[in-house]
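quick one before i forget lol
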Amino acid sequence: MVLVVFLLAYLTRRKLDAANTMPGDALWRAAFRAGSKTSAGKEAVKWKGLLMVTVPSVLLAVAMWYLAELGWKVATYPLEFVLLVMLMGAPGWKAPLEAYSSSWARGDMQAAWHHIKDNLPARDRGAAASPDEMHLLLSRTLLVNVFERFFLIGFWYVVGGPAAAFFARGVIALRDHWPQAAARPGYAALAELLNWLPSRLLSFTFGVAGDLAGWISERKGALFGVTLTTDQVLMGAANAALTGYALDPGRFSRIHPDEWPGYGRRSLDAIRNLLNRSMLVWICLLALLVIAGVM
């Protein structure tokens, strides 16, 4: 049932994202505002945020275990489905990416930046000094966002159940939305620990779902390095697995200058297709584990 629940939740969440409904970030921000009051000089304290994520995770794990002990395991599946639908999702990307691609095709890079700047992390909003850098910032943000909102949740759900998925998503929310900015670097470090294994698994999946020969030709230290951050791992692997210089705008503009107006849309389509194929690989792998009796 793990496969069925995850597949149904994934498909449902994709439809909700396409309709730009049920954004989960607003709920996390509201919850954190309600319990984030702190005294002056203690803005970097992290225990309160971790407590707000850990306690519900433990209660969820106990509730699932108790229902299973009572013989009501089947009753947990609808709960898991609803929880996954709420935890997953990256709404709000469809319209900005479409407007960005159209502006890029017209050569209006200022308008393209205007359409996507609010989707970028605050630290990157002043870093786009050229169209190449702007596009790489957008590509990196899109890759990491989809990874953390779908693949990360799916990985921890399969490995540790709904409680682990809730905890992982909660830590990501703490990093992005905790009101006290001084505490966010600590949450970011914990998020990197949770991302470490699934990001490298997705990096390997990119090779399977994309250009395997190009992926193999890359130095494995550049794809699986222990100290690499999540965005470095995903960008390196995606660049190696994609053909047509989809993540190398500088080289593409030199080799295909006449096709430059269509590069923005072509590159984003290649990234989304790679992510979709990678999720299909994960679902097939999960199905094989179920058939083998591992799950």
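fyi The mean pLDDT is 89.
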